[in-house]
């Protein structure tokens, strides 16, 4: 290139340099707070910016493409899914289950014991459910499938055993806990308290739930000829549906059952799900477990 061509470019280049200098750092605009955690789509190699590290100025977009609007800081993140835990309360001197759905946490054993100590809801309490576990009981260690903790040893032996059973049956729902060590004694498991279960256990639905037809009634039972019967009562106590099913194990052993029932109602109302055994002696309903619910219209 000759000298004339070089000189001809001098003025535009100088003007561009001055313009770029005037548009350089610092840039205006609020970039928002520095992220404290990687987005959920991050790969295992992605790591959040250490606290206190100055934010790195992003590379400007190409000159032929105008910059787009800044994305909000929450884009790419979502709330973790909730967790549903099973709680074992006491009813008429026996263990009965219910459930809670709460925000997800890594400390599931602490959450379960906190909810267990908090006691039943109004709907659950109406069925006679109660808790014997005081607040403040926590797992101190989980290793090799054994959860270790101390449980207050107040009350008579029957009360203490029920309290221990609540803890054992609640904690062993988690895959990381197979047995529980209480107060330094040998580890125990669910089978050590199986005699504290009623003949019929209802795991679904839970007291106070709003249910719709068809409804799956499920749980475990040890009943005559493994036959479990179900009936649905409306707000006036009228029978609006019946059904029966067979547990996976009969008399003398406990098995799971699942019964599907439907009903016809024209309005939403309070109702009751009764799960029972038919007496082999006189055909009466025995070992009845009544679960108060809200019946959605069905038909």
From TrEMBL:
Residues 57-70 have a biased composition (Pro residues). Residues 109-191 form the GerMN domain. Residues 39-56 have a biased composition (Low complexity). Transmembrane segments: none annotated. Residues 23-79 are annotated as: Disordered. InterPro entries: GerMN (IPR019606), Gmad2_Ig-like_dom (IPR018911). It comes from the Bacteria. This is GerMN domain-containing protein. The lineage of its organism: Bacteria, Bacillati, Actinomycetota, Actinomycetes, Micromonosporales.
């Amino acid at each position: 290139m000759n000298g004339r061509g070089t000189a001809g470019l001098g003025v535009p280049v100088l003007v561009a340099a001055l313009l770029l200098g005037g548009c350089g750092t610092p840039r205006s605009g609020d970039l928002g707070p520095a992220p404290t955690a990687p987005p959920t789509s991050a790969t295992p190699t992605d790591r959040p910016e250490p606290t206190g590290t100055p934010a790195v100025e992003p590379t400007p977009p190409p000159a032929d493409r105008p910059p787009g609007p800044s994305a909000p800081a929450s884009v790419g993140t979502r709330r973790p899914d909730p967790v549903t835990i099973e709680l074992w309360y006491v009813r008429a001197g026996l263990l009965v289950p219910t459930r809670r759905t709460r925000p997800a946490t890594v400390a599931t054993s602490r959450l379960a014991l906190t909810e267990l100590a908090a006691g039943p809801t109004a709907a659950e309490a109406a069925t006679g459910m109660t808790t014997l576990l005081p607040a403040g009981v926590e797992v101190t260690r989980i290793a090799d499938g054994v959860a270790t903790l101390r449980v207050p040893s107040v009350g008579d032996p029957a009360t203490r055993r029920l309290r221990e059973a609540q803890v054992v049956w609640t904690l062993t729902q988690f895959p990381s806990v197979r047995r529980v060590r209480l107060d330094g004694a040998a580890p125990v498991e669910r089978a050590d308290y199986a005699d504290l279960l009623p003949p019929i256990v209802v795991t679904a639905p839970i007291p106070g739930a709003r249910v719709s037809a068809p409804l799956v009634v499920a749980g475990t039972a040890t009943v005559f000829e493994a036959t479990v019967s179900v009936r649905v009562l409306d707000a006036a106590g009228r029978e609006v549906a019946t059904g029966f099913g067979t547990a996976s194990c009969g008399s003398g052993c406990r098995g799971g059952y699942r019964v599907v029932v439907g009903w016809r109602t024209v309005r939403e109302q309070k109702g009751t799900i009764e799960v029972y055994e038919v007496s082999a002696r006189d055909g009466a309903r025995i070992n009845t477990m009544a679960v108060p619910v809200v019946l959605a219209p069905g038909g």
